[in-house]
Design goal:
single chain, 476 residues, alpha/beta, Aldehyde Dehydrogenase, Chain A, domain 1, Aldehyde Dehydrogenase, Chain A, domain 2, 2 domains, six-stranded mixed beta sheet, 15 helices, 20 strands, 40% helix, globular, binds nicotinamide-adenine-dinucleotide
């Protein structure tokens, strides 16, 4: 059993959960400890005990620890990327890319520890000076999903530690291996015991215990809207700081003046890479009438030609769906799309491969109406819906007609439309001629409405969540 890491010690649990490779159900990666609520509370107590010392460390000490973690992740990116593909099902190239991204994130936030700054402000009253500084928020609980099992932990843990906080981290039950590997690296980075704690287990038990513990000052959550609401309610009840990153129903607008080949590529990557299991996936493709038929025909062809297979086979372009219940959800939505009157122009069927796995042919629907449930609800699989519109104004209106607001993309050669869309798309991130999924690690990430709540993650903006501001007045 791979144990939890609490108070600087590796701690086994009474129960363990197998971690199964979705590309090959006969391959069990390992068994991971499944903690109970008491273990989560011990982890919070350990983090509280560690807080006075860690929050008093120098920026140099924090830089050294985070930089060492980043260096090791980058040196081991091939191995960690392979583990990621094996447990989550994204392709090897995507797995290695995500591992490298985690390494760069630790490097970036190592630097942020050194760049901490405050302000000295003249007072409006005579003889006084005013200082505005930032302090750690305290013990941060982190609850994450399975679909970016090393990058999301990195973009929460690294800024938390850089700004002097202690961490209680709960990975998703479906993908604990990368989190465990990251915890193992952190355990050798020179952090005082209790500064970083890993508690693997069920959301309803370990997650809930973290949310309800008065020793947790702030909660950073990434996952579905339904769970996010529960997390927010629990945090609000005791006035803990909370940040939520949730789902998406991201539009990709394709205009008549788009470069057709480029637009098709942008759609294929945004909709189906990582098996469509990305909060930033382009699940609604909004296409103007003049290019619509040619675009749908080319996109259907490309979709049918995608190589679906074992995530770790270098020839694979789309890996398996993560597990049986996600596969059933994808299939339910494909059946729903048909019953709503959408036209399935590619894919949608289960595929058999040499090894038993959760293989699904990426599904493309045309003739969709934006009011259909397949256009409104997050499916979180390789399923995309094309909506035909007459012109740019209608495209923008349809793009913005959603309960979500994470990313929005446009393919166009018109500077005027690109500029207008960047200004008027109601989303946290806007992409012009690039896929809706795929972002830089040094700039803010997040959305609006049902997609996000609270301060942005990543880049310099992460300081907002991981610190609290103090204003000090001195009469000289
Ligand atoms: P999920 O909501 O089912 O689970 C997320 C985490 O919450 C898991 O660790 C789970 O154990 C935990 N959890 C479940 N119930 C809980 C409870 N009662 N109390 C505390 N914790 C609890 O989501 P998932 O299926 O793992 O991930 C998919 C979702 O994540 C999608 O909606 C996707 O869009 C979203 N996501 C969002 C972003 C983003 O940054 N916006 C990034 C990746 C994924």
């Amino acid at each position: 059993m791979r144990p939890n890491y609490i108070g600087g010690e590796w701690v086994e649990a009474a129960r363990a959960t197998p971690n199964v490779n979705p590309s090959d159900l006969a391959d069990t990666i390992d068994h991971y400890a499944s903690a109970d609520a008491a273990a989560a509370r011990r982890a919070v107590a350990a983090a509280r005990a560690a807080l006075p010392a860690w929050s008093a460390t120098t920026p140099q000490q924090r830089f050294d620890a985070l930089d060492a973690v980043g260096t090791e992740i980058l040196a081991r990116k091939a191995e960690l990327g392979d583990l990621l593909s094996r447990e989550e099902g994204k392709t090897l190239a995507e797995g290695v890319g995500e591992a490298a991204r985690a390494g760069f994130i630790f490097k970036f936030f190592a630097g942020e520890a050194l760049r901490a700054a405050g302000e000295v402000v003249p007072s409006v009253r005579p003889g006084l000076s005013v200082e505005v500084t930032r302090e750690p928020v305290g013990v941060v609980g982190m609850i994450v999903p399975w679909n970016f099992p090393i990058a999301i932990p990195a973009w929460k843990i690294a800024p938390a530690l850089a700004h002097g906080n202690c961490v209680v981290f709960k990975p998703a039950e479906l993908a604990p291996a990368c989190s465990w590997a990251l915890a193992e690296i952190l355990s050798r980075a020179g952090l005082p015991p209790g500064t970083f704690n890993l508690v693997m287990g069920k959301g309803s038990e370990v997650g809930q215990a973290i949310l309800d513990d008065p020793g947790v000052d702030a909660v950073s959550f990434t996952g579905s809207v339904a769970t996010g609401r529960r997390v927010a309610e629990a945090a609000m009840r005791r006035l803990a700081k909370v940040q939520l990153e949730m789902g998406g129903k991201n539009p990709l607008v394709v205009l008549d003046d788009a470069d057709l080949a480029q637009a098709v590529e942008v759609a294929v990557q945004g909709s189906f890479y990582s098996t469509g299991q990305r909060c930033t996936a382009s699940s609604r493709i909004v296409v103007t009438a003049g290019i619509h038929d040619a675009f749908v025909e080319r996109l259907a062809e490309r979709t049918r030609a995608l190589a679906v297979g074992d995530a770790r086979d270098p020839a694979t372009q789309v890996g398996p769906v993560v597990d049986a219940s996600q596969l059933e959800q994808d299939e339910r939505y494909i059946a729903l799309g048909r019953s709503e009157g959408a036209r399935l122009v590619a894919g949608g069927e289960r595929l058999k491969r040499a090894k038993e796995g959760f293989y699904l042919a990426p599904a493309l629907f045309a003739d969709c109406d934006n009011r259909m449930r397949i256009c409104r609800e997050e499916i979180f699989g390789p399923v995309a819906a094309v909506v035909r519109v007459k012109d740019y104004d209608e495209a923008l209106a349809v793009a913005n007609d959603t309960d979500f607001g994470l990313t929005a993309g446009i393919c166009t050669t018109s500077l005027r439309h690109a500029a207008h869309f960047k200004r008027h798309a109601q989303a946290g991130m806007v992409m012009v001629n690039v896929p809706t999924a795929g972002v830089d690690y040094h700039v803010p990430f997040g959305g609006r409405r049902g997609s996000s709540y609270g301060p942005r993650e990543q880049g310099r903006h992460a300081v907002e969540f991981y610190t609290t501001v103090k204003t000090a007045y001195t009469l000289a």
